Amino acid sequence: MSTADSNAELGDAALPTAVVSLKVIEALANAPQGLGVTQLSNLLGMPKARAHRHLSALREHGYVTQDASSNHYRVGWQLYLLGRACVSRFDLMTLAKPALQRLRDEVGQTIVISSYADDSVIVIDFLRGTSPIEITLRPGSRFPHNTSAQGKVVLAFGPADVREGFLSTPLPQSTARSIVDAPALRAELDRVRARGWSDAPEELFTGINALAAPLLQADGSLFGTLAIVGSIHYLPETPDPQHVDSLLRTSQEISQLLGFQRAT
């Protein structure tokens, strides 16, 4: 079907609402920088009011997100979780299971893979640890960027609009150690970017720490994060260098599975 035919079809108000919503999602999925309402309506050949209604409904249920500064819409975390459930042939936890198990066996702690939204990281799945104190996380759980090791990775290595949008809002506080000052968080992100990993000792939950590193896609963009999560007793404020080395090695291995190739 030609673009003109597709646009004419979508301009037909009789087209089922579910099909139009899927076309909206498809258009956003093919636009990494997001689309405004006018751009989307022109692309799909539908009235702006109709495009806005679909976007509002999808945003309300987490299937799309809206950037606060540009007002552009992008696919959201709920859509990723739905896609993960549907596309069993490309289940990252299955694909990366040998690497994740090696990391878990080396460090003994819970291993977590997360995706992200504009204001938080979202747990995709986890591998249980083997230490006497076990940390478990529910898939779909969300944590603020500034209070989690994974969120700091997102702000340091993810899209600039996500970082600037988040830093332009009041920073939430989870514990007394949470970083709630924007300049201090920017300085922390510089350190994360320089060393390639982050931590968050007792910044999200008292007694809990995490070490996190980025998972990169073929084009170098951020897919999500890999993290080691455990009691501060097993993941102290000064990290074990072997834990950091294991984390970075595994994140690089999984990034290669996603198609990323390090520059030589």
From TrEMBL:
List GO molecular-function terms, semicolon-separated. DNA binding; DNA-binding transcription factor activity
Q: Name one GO biological process term.
A: negative regulation of DNA-templated transcription
- Is Magnesium given among the entry's keywords? no
Q: Which residues form the HTH iclR-type domain?
A: 15-77
Which controlled-vocabulary keywords does the entry list?
DNA-binding, Transcription, Transcription regulation
List each copy of the IclR-ED domain by range: 78-260
High-level lineage: Bacteria, Pseudomonadati, Pseudomonadota, Gammaproteobacteria, Lysobacterales
Q: Mind telling me which Pfam families this protein's record contains?
A: HTH_IclR (PF09339), IclR_C (PF01614)
Entry's SUPFAM superfamilies? Answer: GAF domain-like, Winged helix' DNA-binding domain
Q: What is this protein called?
A: IclR family transcriptional regulator
